[in-house]
UniProtKB/TrEMBL annotation:
EC number, UniProt record: 1.1.1.94
Encoding gene, per UniProt annotation: gpsA
Taxonomy, superkingdom: Bacteria
Organism field: Tepidiforma bonchosmolovskayae
Active-site feature positions: 190 (proton acceptor)
Residues where sn-glycerol 3-phosphate binds: 106, 135, 190, 243, 253-255
PANTHER family recorded: GLYCEROL-3-PHOSPHATE DEHYDROGENASE, GLYCEROL-3-PHOSPHATE DEHYDROGENASE [NAD(+)] 2, CHLOROPLASTIC
This protein's record includes keyword Lipid metabolism: yes
Protein name, per record: Glycerol-3-phosphate dehydrogenase [NAD(P)+]
Key words of the record: Cytoplasm, Lipid biosynthesis, Lipid metabolism, NAD, NADP, Nucleotide-binding, Oxidoreductase, Phospholipid biosynthesis, Phospholipid metabolism
Biochemical pathway: Membrane lipid metabolism; glycerophospholipid metabolism
Length: 335
């Protein structure tokens, strides 16, 4: 019977464990402590997912690290913790260096500006066997069995196919890609644009304004992606426009809600506290700007989001600056 490991009893980690189980796999869900293991076992998942018990008998919940005994039967691992905790979680998980490991996080490393697969490589994991999972995947919808699609990017399509089979269950449909850079960058950068969209919703600017932010946001995500070696098509796919649409429009999105709270005049730290869960875009904005500066790429929306989070200006000031930019040709990155 195939077995997979999932690192992190987060909303997404528990959802992925449930999907792997529903697809017929045994799962080892690695958590931070025995106390957390007991709580997740007792709830059959996570209360904040609001779906009741979702984990069945084939999901085995254990504190990290993965024991040598368990590792022997494991075909791959998914890491589903926020990007700021990613490095430490992978180190604590003790996954064998030869194991295929996929990042399910949507962020960039604050200290090194690295993508999560680059963090894995720095920790000694084989670049040929690491990958990234992304797409319009709100955990609260997927855990209820609602239809959704995702994309898994691995350098080797054969490995991607194995992950597709492992994860595709019921109404969850996984596509394969080889553009690891693009899938990771799209997943991280869209969170920043969703904060801007949330701010526009918060100011009651309407759907036209949100659609403009999404479209110009996608253009700047793509520009940076191309400069860093991604493929343009990925930004037109599930990890790009797909996830951007879900995150900018869904009231379930924490990044969107963060933008709405900023527009209501809340301080960034208070807004994060109120949401009480991961707001990846708040960490990603300054990192994306650093990457863009190094690559000589302009990211006007991301720059305004970072300035608001940094306390340099208010949301209305940031919106006025975007609207006041010089009129330009509609440049859409092509390759
Ligand atoms: N929630 C969602 O719908 C989706 C989330 N993601 C991504 O998955 C990653 C995790 O996000 P969520 O599942 O939403 O997290 P979450 O907001 O449900 O959980 C984050 C919290 O989980 C706790 N946690 C549990 N295990 C942890 C560990 N091993 N290390 C550190 N903290 C741990 C911490 O208290 C942390 O603040 C993020 O990068 C997010 O962008 C991706 C797709 C969907
Ligand atoms: O990445 C997500 C959906 O695909 C989750 O979005 P939020 O982190 O904004 O809630």
């Amino acid at each position: 019977m195939p077995a997979y490991a999932v690192v992190g009893a987060t909303s997404w980690g528990v959802t992925l464990a449930a999907l792997l189980e529903r697809a017929g796999n045994d799962v080892i869900l690695l958590v931070r402590s025995e106390l957390e293991a007991r709580a997740v076992r007792a709830a059959g998942g996570l209360e904040r997912l609001g779906a009741g018990p979702v984990l069945g008998p084939r999901v085995h919940i254990h504190p990290m690290p993965l024991t040598a005994n368990h590792a022997a039967g494991v075909s791959g691992a998914l890491v589903a913790v926020p990007s700021h905790a990613f490095r430490a979680a992978v180190q604590a998980a003790g996954l064998p260096r030869s194991l295929p490991v996929v990042s399910a996080a949507k962020g960039l490393d604050l200290e090194t500006s690295s993508r999560m697969t680059e963090v894995l490589h720095a920790l000694g994991y084989d670049p040929a066997r690491t990958g990234a999972l992304s797409g319009p995947n709100l955990a609260h919808e997927i855990i209820r069995g609602l239809p959704a699609a995702a994309v898994i990017a691995t350098p080797d399509l054969e490995l991607g196919r194995a992950w597709q089979t492992a994860l595709s269950a019921g109404a969850f449909r996984v596509y394969a890609s080889t553009d690891v850079v693009g899938v990771e960058l799209a997943g991280a950068l869209k969170n920043v644009i969703a904060i801007a969209a949330g701010a526009a919703w918060g100011l009651e600017f309407g759907a036209n304004a949100v659609a403009a932010i999404m479209t110009r946001g996608l253009a700047e995500m793509t520009r940076l992606g191309l400069a860093l070696g991604a493929e343009v098509a990925t930004f037109n796919g599930l990890a790009g426009v797909g996830d951007l649409a879900a995150t900018c429009f869904s009231p379930l999105s924490r990044n969107r809600r963060f933008g709405e709270l900023l527009a209501a005049g809340r301080a960034p730290a208070d807004a994060v506290d109120e949401i009480g869960e991961t707001v990846e875009g708040a960490h990603t904005a300054p990192v994306a700007l650093r990457l863009a500066a190094a690559a000589g790429v302009e990211l006007p929306i991301t720059a305004e989001v970072a300035a608001v989070i940094g306390g340099e200006r208010t949301v209305p000031e940031a919106m006025l600056r975007l609207l006041g930019r010089p009129l330009a040709r509609e440049e859409l990155p092509r390759r």
